[in-house]
Amino acid sequence: MVNVVEHPKFKGVFYVETDTGRQLATENLVPGSKVYGEDLYRIGDTEYRAWSPYRSKLGAAIEKGIRSVPVNPGSKVLYLGAASGTTPSHVSDIVGSKGKVYCVEFAPRVIRELLEVTSKRGNMVPILGDARNPSSYRFFLELVDVIYCDVAQPEQAKLLADNSDYYLKRGGKVMIAIKARSVDVTMDPSQVFKQEVKILEDRSFKILDLKHLEPYEKDHAMVLGERL
């Protein structure tokens, strides 16, 4: 027996309930298509994709009880560090056909895998670019409601703030998956998180929540913020 219920807090996010438990899911924008080998569940005329928090930091943040997820149906999202498209594909499901996900990825090898995902999803725009240089892809973008950042760079908060200066709407929201070991392998992760948060606050962000992502991701935290 399979049952699907809406997430009690977040629009466009669901739980699939089976005899073995429940798991996060999104409604599949491209029915019949998988992105990373996830399970598919059909209920009536609607298909849902299982969303593993062990494969997605956004999924992990939801399972850890993050205060809110600003990605909603119809949202325009700039996704920095899109990699092969695992989490961006779930963001694509959530924003739906009226939304847009601009996917910036630096590595040419990885973006080839991303292109396989975006070719099937009309609301995803792949961009080969360096998130440290936001002006380099300004011709591909519009102002967005949300910037989601998941990059393995030493200056993660600065990178997010720089992109926000170019592309984030007034009052827009940000989410950043801080990878402590990418910032400074010698520092205690909690100190790294505080350091990156301070950088965001100094760049006119109000921090709305911070969640450590263990056991899904070691030495990672998700920060939710709002541009003042």
Strand content: 25-35%
Please give the radius of gyration in angstroms.
17 Å
CATH architecture of the largest domain: 3-Layer(aba) Sandwich
Helix content: 25-40%
Give a short synopsis of this structure.
Helices cover 25% and strands 33% of the residues. The protein is an alpha/beta fold.
Note down, in words, how this protein is organized.
This protein is α/β, with parallel strands linked by helices and 228 residues long. The protein has helices at residues 57-63, 86-95, 108-118, 156-167, 180-183, 189-202; strands spanning 3-6, 14-18, 21-27, 40-43, 46-50, 76-80, 100-105, 124-128, 144-149, 168-179, 205-212, 220-227. Helix 4 (156-167) runs parallel beside helix 6 (189-202). The longest helix has 14 residues, at 189-202.
